[in-house]
Amino acid sequence: APAGHFFAGKSYAEIYSDIRNSIDLCHRDGSLKRGVASDPGYYIHQDKNLVPLLEDLRVSGKKIFIVTNSLWDYTNIVMNYLIGGKTGAEKSLDWLDYFDVVVTGSAKPRFFQDNQPLFGVEPASGFLHNTDEGNPMVDLDSAEDDLESMEPVPAGKVFQGGTYKIINRMLQTESNSDILYIGDHIYGDILKSKKTLGWRTMLVVPEMEHEIEVLSRNAGVPQQLFQMRRKRDAIEDQLQRMSWKLNSATGKKDASFTEEDRRDLEAQKQALEDQHAVLRDEHSKTMAKFHKEFHPIWGQLLKTGYQNSRFANQIGRFACLYPSHVGNL
């Protein structure tokens, strides 16, 4: 059915509520992740430069970690595809060799400020181990598994839940500023980790690649718009002075200001008003065309007219870096 059929007769608040509830539901019931897991290649961009990047970081002595809200089963599917292009029965745990710590089910942004129960994850089975008491916990869907066959909690690298302190402890960092955290969510990843912990942050903004390409292709347009606006402002100043002179001379009944002077000034004023109208229309059309180059509705991502957008202000405050892709690191 056409999109309008679903939204007919609804207010913007109701439409927002419906969309928000639908998004929340597909996350809660697992339908979104089941769809991705069934065909990772359809939904996930596999970057051939990712593995070389991870190898270079490890060779240079850097320690690498993952903190994700996804649970282990989905994390394992995604990382197998990203690192080795593996799906289905081909999946393995080889991708873990590139990372020192993997935290799943982190519940960000709570991970950056609240204490949560921390469990060790047994990668081969997905079993959870209570790291406080040492008692194993079993996935409810696997109740028939033999608990006695489970090995003691290993000094592993895969966890679920917990808090940022596990990262500091496992990586043995001396200062929070030693950590560069890379994420794609301004609030869930970047704002809290920067504001609360003082981590270095890198926000992945995929739209930046397109934004930069459009700016390069229209390199002279911003200056053109600036000059048009400057000229428009100058005409507005002239019009204001002419209006003041006309009103002042008429009110004071200045004898030196003749009827002919008044007609000449009004004619000049009308000519400037016509020029201003043409310039304003040209400026408006040029601005609209320029913004549609970025996005047909929202325009430039980091601008609202001539002002920085709210998103741009948040990036400026909380993101140390903001490339279009993690590979830009």
Automatic annotation (TrEMBL):
<dbReference type="Pfam" id="PF05761">
    <property type="entry name" value="5_nucleotid"/>
</dbReference>
<keyword id="KW-0460">Magnesium</keyword>
<keyword id="KW-0175">Coiled coil</keyword>
<keyword id="KW-0378">Hydrolase</keyword>
<feature type="coiled-coil region">
    <location>
        <begin position="255"/>
        <end position="282"/>
    </location>
</feature>
<dbReference type="GO" id="GO:0046872">
    <property type="term" value="F:metal ion binding"/>
</dbReference>
<dbReference type="InterPro" id="IPR008380">
    <property type="entry name" value="HAD-SF_hydro_IG_5-nucl"/>
</dbReference>
<keyword id="KW-0479">Metal-binding</keyword>
<comment type="similarity">
    <text>Belongs to the 5'(3')-deoxyribonucleotidase family.</text>
</comment>
<protein>
    <recommendedName>
        <fullName>5'-nucleotidase</fullName>
    </recommendedName>
</protein>
<dbReference type="InterPro" id="IPR036412">
    <property type="entry name" value="HAD-like_sf"/>
</dbReference>
<dbReference type="GO" id="GO:0008253">
    <property type="term" value="F:5'-nucleotidase activity"/>
</dbReference>
<dbReference type="InterPro" id="IPR023214">
    <property type="entry name" value="HAD_sf"/>
</dbReference>
